[in-house]
User: Which sequence fits this backbone?
């Protein structure tokens, strides 16, 4: 009999700490699969964020570094510059990449660092208890926007991927979704492309994944997937941005 | 070796390069810009990496990354910039990474000014960021020592897997003095981590278990374990790495205590006073953390602490002496540097008291 | 012996270089020496000064409060630093760019005009250095020449010639 499915070598067989319906587990797995399929496990160095995915290194079975909140791309720059033969990626949430770490994000991209970035956009801060994120939608209720995000006081959802696409140092940006089986297949393809770009020395590549957070969206896991498709993807349209 | 004329800033950079520093990230700030420029001119030529970072915060975190990947790494700045780096330094200490951080101190608080100062003593020696940690702190008093102690700082940082700070001031950084490049040959920066010497480094998990560099320990009891391990390390450093210079202590009635640039002026005052028959001595702490308590093991009658601050190292001298001697203080800050004449005046006042 | 010298003028006059040449010369004679620049935000055209201390013994502060010698290259610097000279101190002044002042005793020479005469206004600093060295025999002119030869860019032999000439002319100003 042919084996058509197995546990990725790069993913440890451990219980998850993520909430039911959370997108992080999926994203971790897709990255682990891509690393295995590209034969990168012994070469890859990951930089984990601060946020729900802070212990991503407990799931991935390859070399990992932590980074202070928002500083993943500075840490990754340091690693990649001294070890250009390794494949270095960051895994960051919306608060990490697009609020507290905006400076590091923009300048790593503008230097055209040959890095791969996985950007998990779930429009909310998960780890600290559901506060407004830079990507929180207008009218979306969070613990710090109890009446819903109001542009007059909290500004607009930040489209950091579109902003980064303006920079000549950036070679590839795609926004994908973890909202359906079909989308997940596309996400895996985008992840591989972002890795391949680094392997081939093409340069800074970022994959933004719209990812469900049922807990802080106040929805069931199924409703969360519909919300991504019907509401979130309207504000953050899917597709190759650059 | 013939001596060459070099500034303190340049000497620190050259010392770092000869110690095998292969990664430098920094951001412009006076009075340490020459150091960054020296690295920009020389690092790449010698096989290392130079990055002008977008900010101090990014620079220290780049150092975190480069160090995690096994490279000897350094950043430099001056007081306000060092404040910005404190988060990163805390992470470096927590993750037990070696790194060298240079602070060429200027006047504060706030934007202050660019005059020499020693007002960051507390910040450097008391774990300037959050958490229970220490940095090894070395305070050069000459261009030669700027070079020598930077070289030493890399070795100590690697040995103890801890951040080491070179604490200088604007005068030392800017000043040129003769420097002997000793016998340390200019080694080409080793870009590759040597797995044998740094088995914890992130190099890809070929042929071994995956490495994780982190300071995050959420499980009950785990962080306490890390902190106890750190404390044990700090005790070892305290026992083994106290460094100081002393002058004329045997018969001294009054002992001057000063470090860095200030110690040069204190030394000049001691020599002048000795010439006039005054029994005056000098203790110059070279390591500020660990503070050289051993230098105060047999207390003299009277001490005069002189600083370009309003009494920061003073507290360590008080702790070292535990009330067993009379301690006087002379300090200025914000651009004022206590002069040889001021020190002599103060000594004359307290000598017979 | 300890000699504390403040050298001051405007940015672009080669003030820092003058100090460095002197310091390098002292180094060749195995003396203790420090060179401390003013490192403010001023750049070209602003005030510039540096402090050089040369001694047979270890040097304490590189910063000079009261100088044994002043080398002053323009009026603003004269006004600013004339109070920083010891009573018995030596004042070397560039008369090309300062007003005569009967109240202060100076050794002066028209360093800038002399430099222009040599075909390069930029060597006024070395003219001033020559004048200083003729009065204060702190470093031998031979060693200063060695330094100048070492520092001069290889591809500009005319610049080296102008500097050597400048040093000679400067030494003729000895008017004490």
Assistant:
């Amino acid at each position: 009999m042919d084996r058509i499915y197995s546990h990725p070598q790069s993913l440890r067989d451990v219980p998850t700490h993520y909430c039911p319906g959370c997108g992080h587990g999926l994203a971790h797995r897709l990255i682990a699969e891509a690393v295995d399929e590209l034969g990168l496990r012994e070469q890859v160095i990951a930089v984990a964020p601060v946020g729900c995915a802070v212990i991503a290194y407990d799931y991935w079975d390859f070399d990992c570094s932590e980074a202070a909140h928002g500083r993943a791309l500075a840490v990754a720059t340091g690693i990649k510059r001294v070890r250009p033969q390794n494949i270095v990626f960051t895994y960051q949430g919306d608060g990490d990449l697009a609020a507290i770490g905006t400076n590091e994000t923009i300048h790593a991209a503008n230097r055209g660092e040959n890095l791969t970035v996985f950007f998990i956009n779930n429009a909310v801060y998960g780890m600290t208890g559901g506060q407004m994120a830079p990507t929180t939608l207008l009218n979306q209720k969070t613990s710090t926007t109890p009446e819903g995000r109001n542009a007059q006081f909290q500004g607009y959802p930040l489209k950091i991927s579109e902003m980064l696409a303006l920079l000549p140092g950036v070679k590839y940006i795609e926004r994908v979704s973890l909202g359906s089986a079909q989308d997940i297949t596309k996400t895996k393809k985008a992840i591989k492309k972002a890795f391949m770009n680094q392997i081939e020395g093409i340069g800074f590549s970022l994959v933004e994944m719209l990812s469900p957070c049922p807990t802080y969206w106040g929805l069931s896991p199924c409703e969360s997937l519909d919300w991504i498709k019907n509401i979130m993807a309207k504000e953050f349209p899917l597709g190759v941005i650059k | 070796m013939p001596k060459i004329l070099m500034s303190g800033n340049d000497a620190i950079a050259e010392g770092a390069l000869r110690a095998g520093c292969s990664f430098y990230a920094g951001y412009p700030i006076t009075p340490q810009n020459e150091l960054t420029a020296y690295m920009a001119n020389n690092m790449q030529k010698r096989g290392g990496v130079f990055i002008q970072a977008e900010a101090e915060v990014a620079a220290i975190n780049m150092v975190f990354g480069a160090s995690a990947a096994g490279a000897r790494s350094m950043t430099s700045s001056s007081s306000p910039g060092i404040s910005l780096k404190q988060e990163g330094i805390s992470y470096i200490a927590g993750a037990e990474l070696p790194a060298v951080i240079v602070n060429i101190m200027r006047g504060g608080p706030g934007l202050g000014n660019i005059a020499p100062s020693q007002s960051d003593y507390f910040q450097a020696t008391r774990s300037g960021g959050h958490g229970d940690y220490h940095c090894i702190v070395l305070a050069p008093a000459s261009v030669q020592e700027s070079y020598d102690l930077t070289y030493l700082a890399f070795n100590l940082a690697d040995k103890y897997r801890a951040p080491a700070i070179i604490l200088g001031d604007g005068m030392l950084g800017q000043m040129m003095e003769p420097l002997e490049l000793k016998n340390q040959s200019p080694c080409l920066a080793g870009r590759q981590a040597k797995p044998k010497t740094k088995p914890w480094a992130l190099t890809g998990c070929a042929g071994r278990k995956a490495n994780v560099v982190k300071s995050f320990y959420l499980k009950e009891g785990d962080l306490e374990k890390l902190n106890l391990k750190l404390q044990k390390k700090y005790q070892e450093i305290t026992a083994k790495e106290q460094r100081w210079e002393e002058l004329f202590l045997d018969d001294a009635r009054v002992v001057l205590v000063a470090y860095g640039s200030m110690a040069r002026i204190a030394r000049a005052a001691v020599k002048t006073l000795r010439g006039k028959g005054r029994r005056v001595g000098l203790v110059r702490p070279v390591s500020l953390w660990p503070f050289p308590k051993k230098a105060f093991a047999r207390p003299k009658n009277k001490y005069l602490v002189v600083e370009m601050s309003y009494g920061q190292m003073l507290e360590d001298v008080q702790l070292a002496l535990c009330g067993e001697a009379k301690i006087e203080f002379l300090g200025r800050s914000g651009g004022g540097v206590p002069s040889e004449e001021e020190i002599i005046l103060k000594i004359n006042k307290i000598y017979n008291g | 012996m300890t000699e504390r010298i403040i050298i001051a003028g405007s940015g672009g006059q080669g003030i820092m270089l003058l100090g460095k040449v002197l310091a390098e010369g002292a180094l060749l004679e195995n003396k203790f020496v420090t060179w401390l620049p003013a490192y403010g935000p001023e750049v070209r055209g602003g005030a510039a000064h540096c402090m050089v201390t040369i001694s047979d013994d270890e040097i304490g502060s590189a910063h000079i409060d009261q100088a044994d010698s002043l080398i002053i290259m323009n009026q603003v610097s004269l006004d600013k630093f004339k109070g920083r000279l010891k009573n018995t101190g030596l004042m070397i002044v560039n008369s090309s760019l300062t007003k005569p002042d009967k109240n202060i005793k100076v050794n002066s020479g028209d360093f800038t005009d002399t430099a222009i005469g040599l075909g390069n206004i930029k060597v006024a600093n070395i003219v001033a250095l020559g004048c200083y060295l003729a009065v204060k025999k702190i470093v031998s002119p031979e060693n200063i020449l060695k330094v100048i030869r070492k520092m001069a860019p290889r591809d500009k032999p005319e610049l080296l010639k102008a500097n050597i000439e400048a040093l000679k002319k400067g030494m003729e100003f000895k008017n004490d």
Summary: The longest strand of chain A covers residues 170-177. The beta strands of chain A are 44-47, 63-65, 87-93, 116-121, 124-125, 131-132, 170-177, 204-210, 239-240. Chain A has one domain: 24-240. Chain A has a mean pLDDT of 97.
